[in-house]
Amino acid sequence: MSDFHGVIPYLVSPTDEAGNIKKDVLAALCGDLIAAGVHGLSPLGSTGEFAYLNREQKRDVVDTVVKAAAGRVPVLAGVAATTIAEAAGMAREWEQLGCQGILATLESYFPLNEDGVYAYFATVAEAVNLPVILYTNPNFQRTDLSIPVIKRLAKINNIAGIKDASSNTGRLLSIINACGSDLEIFSASAHIPVNVMLLGGKGFMAGPACLAPRQNIIVYDLCTSRQWDKAMMLQKTLWKLNQAFAKYNLAACVKGGLELQGYAVGTPLPPQAPLSPEGREELAAVMKELGVL
Protein backbone atom coordinates (compact mmCIF):
# COMPACT_ATOMS: atom_id res chain seq x y z
CA MET A 1 0.00 0.00 0.00
CA SER A 2 1.02 3.66 -0.29
CA ASP A 3 0.64 6.87 1.66
CA PHE A 4 -0.89 8.63 -1.35
CA HIS A 5 -4.23 10.23 -0.62
CA GLY A 6 -6.31 13.34 -1.07
CA VAL A 7 -6.25 15.83 -3.93
CA ILE A 8 -3.40 15.30 -6.37
CA PRO A 9 -3.56 17.76 -9.29
CA TYR A 10 -2.56 16.65 -12.76
CA LEU A 11 -0.14 19.41 -13.71
CA VAL A 12 0.09 21.16 -17.05
CA SER A 13 3.37 21.23 -18.95
CA PRO A 14 4.07 24.94 -19.61
CA THR A 15 5.87 25.52 -22.90
CA ASP A 16 7.10 28.46 -24.91
CA GLU A 17 6.68 28.82 -28.68
CA ALA A 18 9.82 26.75 -29.30
CA GLY A 19 8.52 23.91 -27.15
CA ASN A 20 10.88 24.52 -24.24
CA ILE A 21 9.49 23.78 -20.79
CA LYS A 22 8.91 27.01 -18.84
CA LYS A 23 10.46 25.76 -15.63
CA ASP A 24 9.94 28.94 -13.63
CA VAL A 25 6.21 28.98 -14.40
CA LEU A 26 5.83 25.30 -13.54
CA ALA A 27 7.75 25.73 -10.29
CA ALA A 28 5.60 28.71 -9.29
CA LEU A 29 2.41 26.74 -9.99
CA CYS A 30 3.67 23.83 -7.90
CA GLY A 31 4.53 26.16 -5.02
CA ASP A 32 1.11 27.78 -5.08
CA LEU A 33 -0.71 24.43 -5.21
CA ILE A 34 1.30 23.16 -2.24
CA ALA A 35 0.52 26.36 -0.35
CA ALA A 36 -3.18 25.78 -1.11
CA GLY A 37 -2.93 22.42 0.63
CA VAL A 38 -2.86 19.76 -2.09
CA HIS A 39 -1.70 16.32 -1.01
CA GLY A 40 0.56 15.54 -3.96
CA LEU A 41 1.52 16.53 -7.50
CA SER A 42 1.32 14.47 -10.68
CA PRO A 43 3.23 15.63 -13.76
CA LEU A 44 2.80 13.96 -17.16
CA GLY A 45 -0.82 12.94 -16.79
CA SER A 46 -3.39 13.62 -19.51
CA THR A 47 -3.51 17.30 -18.51
CA GLY A 48 0.28 17.34 -18.83
CA GLU A 49 0.08 16.40 -22.53
CA PHE A 50 2.35 13.37 -22.09
CA ALA A 51 1.44 12.11 -25.56
CA TYR A 52 2.85 15.27 -27.17
CA LEU A 53 6.15 15.63 -25.30
CA ASN A 54 9.52 14.14 -26.19
CA ARG A 55 11.74 12.46 -23.60
CA GLU A 56 13.83 15.59 -22.93
CA GLN A 57 10.72 17.70 -22.34
CA LYS A 58 9.30 15.04 -20.02
CA ARG A 59 12.55 14.91 -18.08
CA ASP A 60 12.53 18.69 -17.65
CA VAL A 61 8.94 18.58 -16.36
CA VAL A 62 9.59 15.83 -13.82
CA ASP A 63 12.86 17.34 -12.62
CA THR A 64 11.25 20.76 -12.18
CA VAL A 65 8.31 19.38 -10.20
CA VAL A 66 10.50 17.26 -7.93
CA LYS A 67 12.72 20.25 -7.15
CA ALA A 68 9.74 22.55 -6.60
CA ALA A 69 8.02 20.07 -4.28
CA ALA A 70 11.24 19.70 -2.27
CA GLY A 71 9.79 16.80 -0.32
CA ARG A 72 6.80 18.77 0.95
CA VAL A 73 4.33 16.55 -0.94
CA PRO A 74 4.87 13.35 -2.94
CA VAL A 75 5.38 13.54 -6.69
CA LEU A 76 3.72 10.82 -8.81
CA ALA A 77 5.22 11.10 -12.26
CA GLY A 78 3.51 9.71 -15.33
CA VAL A 79 5.04 6.93 -17.41
CA ALA A 80 3.49 6.10 -20.77
CA ALA A 81 4.96 4.38 -23.81
CA THR A 82 4.13 1.92 -26.55
CA THR A 83 7.04 -0.39 -25.66
CA ILE A 84 7.91 -2.07 -22.39
CA ALA A 85 11.58 -1.09 -22.68
CA GLU A 86 10.78 2.61 -23.07
CA ALA A 87 8.29 2.58 -20.19
CA ALA A 88 10.63 0.74 -17.82
CA GLY A 89 13.53 3.03 -18.69
CA MET A 90 11.38 6.09 -18.12
CA ALA A 91 10.22 4.80 -14.73
CA ARG A 92 13.81 4.18 -13.64
CA GLU A 93 14.83 7.67 -14.72
CA TRP A 94 11.94 9.33 -12.86
CA GLU A 95 12.92 7.38 -9.72
CA GLN A 96 16.48 8.64 -10.07
CA LEU A 97 15.16 12.20 -10.35
CA GLY A 98 13.52 11.79 -6.94
CA CYS A 99 9.85 10.94 -7.52
CA GLN A 100 7.92 9.19 -4.78
CA GLY A 101 5.61 7.24 -7.08
CA ILE A 102 4.85 6.27 -10.67
CA LEU A 103 1.55 6.72 -12.49
CA ALA A 104 1.64 4.07 -15.20
CA THR A 105 -0.33 4.39 -18.44
CA LEU A 106 -0.31 2.09 -21.46
CA GLU A 107 -0.12 3.52 -24.96
CA SER A 108 -0.76 1.21 -27.90
CA TYR A 109 -1.27 1.34 -31.64
CA PHE A 110 -1.87 -2.31 -32.51
CA PRO A 111 -4.27 -4.27 -30.25
CA LEU A 112 -2.66 -6.16 -27.36
CA ASN A 113 -3.74 -9.35 -25.66
CA GLU A 114 -4.12 -9.55 -21.88
CA ASP A 115 -0.69 -11.12 -21.35
CA GLY A 116 0.90 -8.19 -23.18
CA VAL A 117 -0.99 -5.68 -21.06
CA TYR A 118 0.01 -7.51 -17.88
CA ALA A 119 3.66 -7.69 -18.95
CA TYR A 120 3.78 -3.95 -19.61
CA PHE A 121 2.60 -2.89 -16.16
CA ALA A 122 4.39 -5.70 -14.32
CA THR A 123 7.72 -4.77 -15.90
CA VAL A 124 7.27 -1.07 -15.04
CA ALA A 125 6.61 -2.07 -11.43
CA GLU A 126 9.64 -4.37 -11.35
CA ALA A 127 11.86 -1.60 -12.73
CA VAL A 128 11.48 0.64 -9.66
CA ASN A 129 11.39 0.54 -5.88
CA LEU A 130 8.46 2.95 -5.81
CA PRO A 131 4.70 2.52 -5.42
CA VAL A 132 2.99 2.32 -8.80
CA ILE A 133 -0.53 3.57 -9.50
CA LEU A 134 -2.20 2.09 -12.57
CA TYR A 135 -4.05 4.56 -14.78
CA THR A 136 -6.88 3.49 -17.02
CA ASN A 137 -8.88 5.86 -19.22
CA PRO A 138 -11.07 3.92 -21.68
CA ASN A 139 -12.17 7.10 -23.45
CA PHE A 140 -8.67 7.69 -24.81
CA GLN A 141 -6.86 4.36 -24.67
CA ARG A 142 -6.94 1.80 -27.45
CA THR A 143 -6.12 -1.01 -25.04
CA ASP A 144 -7.79 -0.96 -21.64
CA LEU A 145 -7.11 -2.88 -18.45
CA SER A 146 -9.60 -5.68 -17.89
CA ILE A 147 -10.74 -6.72 -14.43
CA PRO A 148 -8.83 -10.07 -14.61
CA VAL A 149 -5.58 -8.26 -15.53
CA ILE A 150 -6.10 -5.68 -12.77
CA LYS A 151 -6.60 -8.54 -10.30
CA ARG A 152 -3.32 -10.17 -11.40
CA LEU A 153 -1.43 -6.88 -11.21
CA ALA A 154 -2.80 -6.11 -7.73
CA LYS A 155 -0.79 -9.07 -6.42
CA ILE A 156 2.50 -7.34 -7.30
CA ASN A 157 3.85 -5.83 -4.09
CA ASN A 158 4.54 -2.29 -5.26
CA ILE A 159 1.45 -1.87 -7.45
CA ALA A 160 -0.46 0.09 -4.86
CA GLY A 161 -3.51 1.55 -6.55
CA ILE A 162 -5.49 2.41 -9.63
CA LYS A 163 -6.92 5.62 -10.98
CA ASP A 164 -9.92 4.67 -13.06
CA ALA A 165 -11.19 7.48 -15.29
CA SER A 166 -14.12 5.57 -16.73
CA SER A 167 -16.62 7.32 -14.39
CA ASN A 168 -18.23 3.89 -14.09
CA THR A 169 -18.95 3.13 -10.43
CA GLY A 170 -20.06 -0.38 -11.37
CA ARG A 171 -16.61 -1.04 -12.81
CA LEU A 172 -15.04 0.37 -9.65
CA LEU A 173 -17.14 -1.96 -7.52
CA SER A 174 -15.99 -4.86 -9.67
CA ILE A 175 -12.36 -3.82 -9.14
CA ILE A 176 -12.90 -3.48 -5.39
CA ASN A 177 -14.62 -6.86 -5.20
CA ALA A 178 -11.86 -8.50 -7.25
CA CYS A 179 -8.87 -6.91 -5.50
CA GLY A 180 -10.06 -6.11 -1.99
CA SER A 181 -7.38 -4.44 0.10
CA ASP A 182 -4.65 -5.21 -2.47
CA LEU A 183 -5.45 -2.09 -4.49
CA GLU A 184 -6.25 1.50 -3.47
CA ILE A 185 -8.81 3.37 -5.57
CA PHE A 186 -8.43 6.93 -6.85
CA SER A 187 -11.09 8.88 -8.72
CA ALA A 188 -11.04 11.08 -11.77
CA SER A 189 -12.31 14.60 -11.16
CA ALA A 190 -15.50 14.42 -13.28
CA HIS A 191 -18.77 13.88 -11.44
CA ILE A 192 -17.93 10.97 -9.17
CA PRO A 193 -15.23 11.87 -6.57
CA VAL A 194 -17.71 11.81 -3.70
CA ASN A 195 -19.14 8.51 -4.96
CA VAL A 196 -15.65 7.00 -5.14
CA MET A 197 -14.78 8.24 -1.66
CA LEU A 198 -18.03 6.70 -0.39
CA LEU A 199 -16.90 3.39 -1.88
CA GLY A 200 -13.62 3.62 0.03
CA GLY A 201 -11.47 5.67 -2.35
CA LYS A 202 -8.24 7.32 -1.22
CA GLY A 203 -8.68 10.57 -3.14
CA PHE A 204 -8.82 12.03 -6.62
CA MET A 205 -6.28 12.94 -9.27
CA ALA A 206 -7.67 15.86 -11.18
CA GLY A 207 -6.64 18.42 -13.79
CA PRO A 208 -9.32 20.89 -12.59
CA ALA A 209 -7.65 20.92 -9.17
CA CYS A 210 -4.95 23.12 -10.76
CA LEU A 211 -7.59 25.85 -11.10
CA ALA A 212 -9.62 25.25 -7.94
CA PRO A 213 -7.38 23.44 -5.47
CA ARG A 214 -9.00 24.70 -2.28
CA GLN A 215 -12.52 23.79 -3.41
CA ASN A 216 -11.39 20.26 -4.28
CA ILE A 217 -9.64 19.95 -0.92
CA ILE A 218 -12.85 20.98 0.84
CA VAL A 219 -14.72 18.21 -0.99
CA TYR A 220 -12.08 15.71 0.11
CA ASP A 221 -12.15 16.93 3.73
CA LEU A 222 -15.95 16.73 3.81
CA CYS A 223 -15.73 13.16 2.56
CA THR A 224 -13.15 12.10 5.14
CA SER A 225 -15.36 13.59 7.87
CA ARG A 226 -18.32 11.72 6.34
CA GLN A 227 -20.30 14.88 5.62
CA TRP A 228 -21.59 13.38 2.41
CA ASP A 229 -24.49 15.78 1.78
CA LYS A 230 -22.26 18.86 1.99
CA ALA A 231 -19.59 17.17 -0.13
CA MET A 232 -22.11 16.36 -2.83
CA MET A 233 -23.46 19.92 -2.87
CA LEU A 234 -19.99 21.32 -3.50
CA GLN A 235 -19.24 18.63 -6.07
CA LYS A 236 -22.34 19.72 -7.99
CA THR A 237 -20.96 23.26 -8.09
CA LEU A 238 -17.52 22.10 -9.24
CA TRP A 239 -19.16 20.04 -11.99
CA LYS A 240 -19.70 23.27 -13.92
CA LEU A 241 -15.93 23.47 -14.34
CA ASN A 242 -15.81 19.89 -15.61
CA GLN A 243 -18.59 20.62 -18.07
CA ALA A 244 -16.37 23.21 -19.72
CA PHE A 245 -13.50 20.71 -19.81
CA ALA A 246 -15.76 18.10 -21.41
CA LYS A 247 -16.84 20.59 -24.06
CA TYR A 248 -13.35 21.80 -24.97
CA ASN A 249 -9.88 20.22 -25.09
CA LEU A 250 -8.75 19.29 -21.56
CA ALA A 251 -5.21 20.66 -21.72
CA ALA A 252 -6.43 23.77 -23.55
CA CYS A 253 -9.01 24.40 -20.82
CA VAL A 254 -6.64 23.95 -17.89
CA LYS A 255 -3.93 26.01 -19.58
CA GLY A 256 -6.48 28.65 -20.59
CA GLY A 257 -7.79 28.85 -17.04
CA LEU A 258 -4.29 29.14 -15.59
CA GLU A 259 -3.50 31.91 -18.08
CA LEU A 260 -6.60 33.73 -16.79
CA GLN A 261 -5.19 33.34 -13.27
CA GLY A 262 -1.87 34.87 -14.33
CA TYR A 263 0.27 31.79 -15.00
CA ALA A 264 2.04 32.12 -18.36
CA VAL A 265 1.74 28.41 -19.18
CA GLY A 266 1.25 28.89 -22.91
CA THR A 267 -1.05 26.93 -25.20
CA PRO A 268 -1.25 23.19 -25.89
CA LEU A 269 1.40 21.74 -28.14
CA PRO A 270 0.36 21.56 -31.84
CA PRO A 271 -1.57 20.08 -33.50
CA GLN A 272 -3.83 20.62 -30.50
CA ALA A 273 -5.83 23.82 -30.72
CA PRO A 274 -5.71 26.51 -28.04
CA LEU A 275 -8.86 27.40 -26.14
CA SER A 276 -11.20 29.37 -28.41
CA PRO A 277 -12.36 32.89 -27.49
CA GLU A 278 -15.83 31.43 -26.79
CA GLY A 279 -14.33 28.75 -24.57
CA ARG A 280 -12.20 31.28 -22.75
CA GLU A 281 -15.25 33.43 -22.06
CA GLU A 282 -17.30 30.45 -20.87
CA LEU A 283 -14.49 29.19 -18.64
CA ALA A 284 -13.91 32.64 -17.15
CA ALA A 285 -17.57 32.92 -16.20
CA VAL A 286 -17.48 29.55 -14.41
CA MET A 287 -14.24 30.41 -12.63
CA LYS A 288 -15.68 33.71 -11.43
CA GLU A 289 -18.73 31.89 -10.11
CA LEU A 290 -16.46 29.48 -8.21
CA GLY A 291 -14.40 32.35 -6.81
CA VAL A 292 -11.13 31.28 -8.44
CA LEU A 293 -10.79 34.26 -10.80
Explain what the structure shows.
The protein is an alpha/beta fold and 293 residues long. The protein has one domain: Aldolase class I (TIM Barrel, Alpha-Beta Barrel), CATH 3.20.20. The protein is built from eleven helices and seven strands. A seven-stranded parallel β-sheet has the order 1-7-6-5-4-3-2. Helix 5 links the parallel strand 4 and strand 5. The longest helix is centred in the C-terminal third of the chain and has 20 residues. It is globular, with a radius of gyration of 18 Å. The protein starts with 5 loop residues before the first strand and ends with a helix. The model has no long low-confidence stretch (mean pLDDT 93).
List strands and helices in order, with pairings.
Elements: E1 6-9, H1 23-36, H2 55-69, E2 76-81, H3 84-97, E3 101-106, H4 114-127, E4 132-136, H5 147-153, E5 159-164, H6 169-179, E6 184-187, H7 193-198, E7 203-206, H8 213-224, H9 228-247, H10 250-260, H11 277-290
Parallel strand pairs: 1-7, 2-3, 3-4, 4-5, 5-6, 6-7
